[in-house]
DNA sequence: CTTTTAAATAATAATGATTATTGCTTATTT
DNA sequence: AAATAAGCAATAATCATTATTATTTAAAAG
C-alpha cells in the first residue's frame, strides 16, 4: 500500500483524492504553508477544489495530530507536517519561516511550569534571518 | 504631573482622555485583555468611544513599546503592559492566561539562533492550569 | 484667553481569514 | 449493485481588525 494511504488509514481517515493531494503538498520540502498557499498549489491537480475543503482537510489532520498549526504571523495560520516539538523563526524582512531546534531547552524538559500542566509549547522568534543579514552587510 | 501623563508625554504621545483611560485599564491587575474587553471596560467612562479608537490607541502604544501584543489564542490578540521579555500560558479549560517567567532560559541569553538575529521571542505554553488541575482532583 | 492647525475621535464601511450551510457526489458497507 | 454515511463544491456568514472620512479636540502661537 502507498505510504500516504497507509498513514491516513492508520489514523482512521477515509481516503479521498483531495486528502491525498493536500497530504502530498504538506510533505513537500516547502514547509509552513498557509491554507491559501496550499489551495493555490492543489488547484493545479484539482481545479474544482474549494478553499473550504482545504480548510476542512487541514482541520481533520490537525485533530488527528498529523500536522502542527502555527501562528507566528498574526494574520494567518501556517501548517507544518512536523509534529514533534520544535520552534519557529519569522524573518521580519523576507517573511520566511525557519524551524528552530533548541537542544537543551529547560522549558521542554519539564511537564509543568508554575504548577500548570504543559501539553504543548510554541516558541516564536522574530528578527532578521541570516540570509537577509548577509545581504545588508554587502 | 500625574504618572500616566508623564509616561505618555515621555513617549511623545499627545494626551487625550481616551488614551489615559485605555492606559489606566491596561495598568489594572487584570492583564492580557482583548481589544473587545478593553472596549467594554472603557465604555463605562466613555460611552461614545468606538472600538476602532481602542484599536488605534493600542497600535500607538505598541509602536511606542508601551505594551506587548500576544497571540496565544489564535482567534484574537491580547494586550499586556509588561514589556520585558516573558512568556505565557493558556489554560485550555478556563481560558485564563498566566505570565511565565523562565529564569535560566537558554534561548533568551543568545542574540542569535542558527545565524538568525533575534529581536523578540514569544513563548506560548498550552495545557491545564494549576487551579483547573486541582478542581479535577477533588 | 482666543485662534490656529494638525492630530484624534466616532461612525461606519471594508477587508480578509476562517467557519457554517446546503444540496450534490463519492467512498465504503451491506 | 444498492444503500448509507461521509465528503465535497459553492456560497454565504462570521468576526477580528483595518481603512475611510467628516467632525471634534488638544497643543501651540499670538
The N- and C-terminal alpha carbons of chain A lie at a distance of: 52 Å
What's the overall geometry of chain A? Answer: globular
Spans of chain A with pLDDT under 50 lasting ≥5 residues?
none
Order of helices and strands of chain A: HHHHEEEEHEEH
* CATH level 1 name of the largest domain in chain A: Mainly Alpha
The greatest interface between two protein chains, and residues involved on each side, is: A-B, 34 and 34 residues
Let me know the average pLDDT of chain A. Answer: 92
How does the helix and strand content of chain A classify structurally? alpha+beta
Number of DSSP strands of chain A? 6
Strand content of chain A: 15-25%
CATH architecture of the largest domain in chain A: Orthogonal Bundle
Helix share, percent of chain A: 25-40%
What would you give as the CATH superfamily of the largest domain in chain A? Winged helix-like DNA-binding domain superfamily/Winged helix DNA-binding domain
Tell me the Rg of chain A in angstroms.
Answer: 17 Å
Here the CATH topology of the largest domain in chain A equals Arc Repressor Mutant, subunit A
* Main pleated sheet of chain A: 4 strands, mixed
| Strand order in space, largest sheet of chain A | 4-3-6-5
Give the oligomeric state: homodimer
Number of helices of chain A: 6
Description:
The structure is a homodimer of 138-residue chains. The first copy, chain A, has 138 residues and is of the alpha+beta class. The first copy, chain A, has two domains: 68 residues, Winged helix-like DNA-binding domain superfamily/Winged helix DNA-binding domain (Arc Repressor Mutant, subunit A, Orthogonal Bundle), CATH 1.10.10.10; 53 residues, Dna Ligase, domain 1 (2-Layer Sandwich), CATH 3.30.1490.190. Helices cover 37% and strands 22% of the residues of chain A. Chain A contains six helices and six strands; from the N terminus they run ααααββββαββα. In chain A, strands 4-3-6-5 form a four-stranded mixed β-sheet. The first copy, chain A, has a two-stranded antiparallel ribbon with strand order 1-2. In chain A, β3 and β4 form a beta hairpin. Chain A starts with a helix and ends with a helix. The model of chain A has no long low-confidence stretch (mean pLDDT 92). The interface between A and B is medium-sized, with 34 and 34 residues. β6 of chain A pairs antiparallel with β6 of chain B. The structure holds a DNA duplex (30 and 30 nucleotides).
